Amino acid sequence: MSKERIDEFLTWRGQLEGPDGIPGQGLDDREAAWERVMDRLREDPRRRRLTGYRIAAACLLLALIPAARLFQDRHPDVAAIHKTQPQRIPPPAQRLTAPPEPKRPVARTPAGTEPTLARTPAGRESLKTASPARMRRPEASLLAVLPAPPDTITAAFIDPVAPKIGLKPLKNKELRVIHLNEIEGAGTPAPAVTATRPGRRINILFQPSLHEIALPPPPSSENPALLKVKLSSSN
Amino acid sequence: MNISDQIEDARSGNAAAQKALFNRLADPMMALCCRYVKNREDAEEILLDGFYKVFSHLSGFRYQGEAALYAWIKRIMVNECLMFLRRRHSFAVLTEAGTETVSREEEPLADLSAAEIFDLIVRLPVGYRTVFNLHVREGMEHREIAGLLGIAEGTSKSQLRKAKLLLRKMLSLKGIQYVQRKNR
Question: ipTM of this complex > 0.90?
């Protein structure tokens, strides 16, 4: 289209511009129109706030998902670590206090029996093991390694119904005192405590009778974990 | 109070300043909306939507003179009109017309009052009217119009051509009626 034809319409712009350009084309009720605009503007902050809360909630959810996954990934490691640690049982309500006499190592008897103490005529204290038939098998055969002070290792054998058995000497029986770690099987490393501290005292506390059995003096430093206990026989 | 102070007060949320600005620009913007939309109620709705956007985004507007403010508000109103028309009509159905020659014997459009011009424009079909308004009134190029309406550039040109032909026909008829009235 030619330029003249285009320009003929452009002159209309000037005629239509300005407040007098189009008489009678304004708002019929300006006040009412303004009120409606104001109402919409007042509603807007509330709507924006709600939108803001929704966006914040969505962002929080999105942030929690990787955190939950991270925790989930960590949790098996934590559980695995706990599995390798020895099970710990809270210390018993009653515990034996340190006896005034010099302490001697205590022998651990085989399972199903309860050690008894008897004095031989020579004055040597010996450990007697009662026959299994006489004793009632303890119901709770749980050995626990309790958190101990640095200079002692304490183990508690919980036997609520263990009868009191008098000490009877055994004849020519030797018991080897082993550390609890050695029970778990071959290859278990030697306990660091007894290996490095030969003079260490080992007390085994039996609950609820709480017998502390005194054993012969500790062995030489060559093999501190190995104790020879001479028992007298009575049966 | 000059308009720049009015803008600053309105930007800070002063209701009185906002109302003064609204009163100043409501009538011209209403006339603009009526050029695009025949129905006055629809035009008023578009006007209110437009002013809501103006005051919502006034904080982001950088005042560089009254002309710039007017152009900015006018652009918002035109966009609102186009959005309204797009919801009601599909500009995609507009087709390119064949070349139509205009007789040189027809007089160019002139000596018409604003009301008469406005009346002519409003009577145009929506497609013609929209393209005519955007090109002639708003000064947009066909490429821009095509982007706004979602049509081809050639379609925009053909629509404008058709609008002008129709306007000329209407003016011719008007002229004849005017002459006949005068002769009576």
Answer: no
Test B164 with A5 for CB contact under 8 angstroms.
yes
Q: Which domain holds residue B136?
A: 91-184
Same domain, B95 and B184: yes
Please report which helix (H) or strand (E) contains residue B47, including its range: helix B40-56
Which of chain B's residues have a Cβ under 8 Å away from the Cβ of A26?
Answer: 26-27, 30-31
Same domain for B39 and B118, yes or no, is no
Measure the CA dihedral A60/B60/B7/B11, to 10°.
10
Q: Is B137 on the interface with A (CB under 8 A)?
A: yes
Q: Do A37 and B108 count as a contact with CB atoms less than 8 A apart?
A: no
- A212 Cβ contact partners less than 8 Å away, ≥ 6 residues apart: A96, A99, A106, A203, A204, A205, A206
Angle at A201 between CA A195 and CA A206, to 5 degrees: 120
- How many domains are there within chain B? 2
Are both B168 and B183 inside the same structural domain? yes
| Chain A residue at shortest CA distance from B35 | A25
Distance between B87 CA and the closest CA of chain A, angstroms: 22
Give the tokens for residue B30.
Answer: 């209403």
A32 to chain B, minimum CA–CA distance in Å? Answer: 11
Who's near A111: CB < 8 A, 6+ residues apart? A141
Contacts of B57 in chain A (CB under 8 A): none
Among candidate residues B37, B61, B87, the one where a domain is terminated:
B87
Q: Which residues of A touch B18 (CB under 8 A)?
A: 38, 41
Q: Kindly report the average pLDDT of chain B as a whole number.
A: 81
List of residues 6+ apart from B3 with CB closer than 8 A:
B21, B24, B66, B69
- When scoring A11, A35, A37, A40 by the number of chain B Cβ atoms within 10 A, the one with the most, hence best to mutate, is A37
Six token digits for residue B74: 């006018």
Give A184-202 pLDDT, tens digit per residue. Answer: 455 555 544 444 455 555 5
Instruction: Check which CATH number belongs to the domain holding B14 and give it.
Output: 1.10.1740.10
Q: Which two tokens stand for residue B11?
A: 């930007």
Q: Which pLDDT tens digit goes with each residue over B114-142?
A: 777 778 888 888 889 999 889 888 889 99
Q: Who among A15, A30, A33 is closest to B114 (CB)?
A: A15
**B163 and B132, same domain (yes or no):** yes
